[in-house]
Amino acid sequence: MLVLLLFMHFCTSRKSPARYFYNGNRPLVIAHRGACGYIPEHTLQAYETAAYMGADFIEPDLVPTKDFKLVVNHESLLDQTTNVNEMPQFSYLQTTKSIPTYEGILTQTGWFSEDFSLDQIKQLKAKQRIRTRPQGMNLYFGKLTIEEVLDWVIGVNKIRLIEGTPLLGVYIELKDSAYFNSLGFNVEDMLLDVLKDRKIDSIEGASMICPIILQSFELQSLITLGNKTDLPLVYLLEEGYILHNISYYANFVDGVGPGFNLIFDEKCSLTDFVDIAHENNLAVHMWVVKKDKPFCGFEQEETYKKILDSHVDGVFDEFPDLSIYYFTHII
Amino acid sequence: MLITLLFSLSIVSSRKTSAKYFYNTQRPLIIAHRGASGYIPEHTLQAYDIASYMGADFIEPDLVPTKDFSLIINHENLLNETTNVESLPQFCHLHTTKTISTYAGPVTETGWFSEDFTLSEIKELRAKQRLSFRPETLNFYFQKITINEALDWVINQNKERITKNQTLLGAYIELKYPNYFNSLGFDVEDMLLKILKERGIDNIKGASEICPIILQCFELESLQYMSKKTDLPLVYLINSAYPVFNMSYYADYVDGVGPNNGAIFTPNGEITDFVHQAHGYGLAVHMWVIRDDVPFSGFNRPQTYEAVLEAKLDGIFDEFPDSASIYFSGST
């Protein structure tokens, strides 16, 4: 019986062989939507600045277009991050939709990526979502496809390979996959095709060309991906919307991506989340660190000290220069 | 008698400005060199916006004139290094070679020069990152700006800062090659002073309430000229590679000195006597330039800032103001 339990425990976790999934010295720094604290999110410019700041990964969120392209935006709604509402040629596409998401049904009015062709998306310009952040770069930069992002990273990495510096990685999230698949897309296969074209749909290829991590709020999507690729998988969790036991999902993924209030409770003390995750052989990547909206009201240096004390394995940071500087030099 | 004479000389040796914003007792002033130019194409509103958001005390515009007597912001009158001018066919005819007299001696350059362009022609250009190892995807989006635009932007930022009771953002302005431009018929000091006056910031009192101003220059004569017309703090820039006036001489005319890192630190990281001397004359010392990606004296990032503190520098010009802010303030 003991042997059986022991055997089950070993089976309870994948523990990815991807070396780029782990960093022995400090938490991985994942530039949340790029260096979006400074630059409009999910633009090449936000990613390039993040890379120059030393981030380990840039972090594209993917939604589909009408013509089956995967573009980078945090949600299919385009209002918050582009100038779509100022473009008369798109007035007619404004609509209201109810989308089933991991948070339940979300009803929104506006413009949605799945109603636009890629050519139409390419007419939009990106803007800073948050009004209190720098606004001077609004309406200059375009929206991208995941192909463009990956090709850019692969180009950056060719230089890094020559220089012997660590490769920049891409930490990809498919958004609302169940919903989009119900519309006739097949977002997991669409993504895997793009990765396969670049020979980075496997750990071996990704490690040499462009490290890839796949993340999602929908476990089923990760299970589907897990059947077709050995790339590391991370299951995103938000407090209040937890559907599965860790002992269950630990079978299917290599890491878990909790919101910070799963790591720090309402009194701002450390919970046992990280310990339990580590016992289940899961890496923990916490979201999101924002200098202009500190969690628990911590001072800046304190924020990063608390993160280190918590033993999380990675952080999503909208100001990646800060993570890098604090983890490398200050603390 | 001799003692009294020497004593009175020593008191006269320095202006010691009354501008409170010129001093910070807690830490060195953080002057964003050409904006947050480590990340964003230099001398654009965007580079200044990010610098401000990163916690810099001052943005740092360099001014050169246009043909039609505007003062635009560029590190030099040559436009090749920082804009796409060479790819614009409408400006081919303005390509030329000039020899410019500068503090470093005569400098001969070939390319396009701001004084040959009107402001509306300058506005057709787009800014690019000068250094190829820095991010380049921001190239060719942002326009070049006038000092008027930069100041109006800072003044606007400060309106909000005043409501939130935050320290005001300042502008640390350098007129480039004033001797040369004045010889062409410009009157760059008066051009600048007029723009400051229009905004009520050509004096310490107005500047302190609206937009702190510091004036810097490699040419002492230009600073001496301005000191007759304004009480704004003045900083004399020096490069240890070139001959400069004696400190005992210039200390009478300026409030601070802006040396390069080579004047403060030896190549193996020892501190020279410069700061000590300057402080003896009542001069603030603002050192240029700190660049995360081009370290000096073998220092890494935190070592650089530790050395700045150890050397007792009063301010630093930094192309990565986030690094300086984290180190000196504990936050950005």
UniProtKB/TrEMBL annotation, chain A:
Family recorded in the similarity comment: Belongs to the glycerophosphoryl diester phosphodiesterase family.
InterPro entries in UniProt: GP_PDE_dom, PLC-like_Pdiesterase_TIM-brl
Keywords of this entry: Glycerol metabolism, Hydrolase, Signal
Domain of life: Eukaryota
GO MF terms, alphabetically ordered: glycerophosphodiester phosphodiesterase activity
Sequence ranges assigned to domain GP-PDE in this UniProt record: 27-327
Reaction equations catalysed: a sn-glycero-3-phosphodiester + H2O = an alcohol + sn-glycerol 3-phosphate + H(+)
Keyword Hydrolase: yes
EC number: 3.1.4.46
SUPFAM superfamilies linked: PLC-like phosphodiesterases
One GO biological process term: glycerol metabolic process
Naturally occurring in which organism (per UniProt): Stentor coeruleus
Signal peptide segment: 1-18
Name listed for the protein in its UniProt record: glycerophosphodiester phosphodiesterase
UniProtKB/TrEMBL annotation, chain B:
Pfam families registered for this protein in UniProt: GDPD
Catalytic activity from the UniProt record: a sn-glycero-3-phosphodiester + H2O = an alcohol + sn-glycerol 3-phosphate + H(+)
Biological processes, Gene Ontology terms: glycerol metabolic process; lipid metabolic process
E.C. numbers: 3.1.4.46
Molecular function (Gene Ontology), one example: glycerophosphodiester phosphodiesterase activity
EC class: hydrolase
PROSITE patterns, sorted: GP_PDE
Entry keyword set: Glycerol metabolism, Hydrolase, Signal
Homology family: Belongs to the glycerophosphoryl diester phosphodiesterase family.
Name by which UniProt lists this protein: glycerophosphodiester phosphodiesterase
Species name: Stentor coeruleus
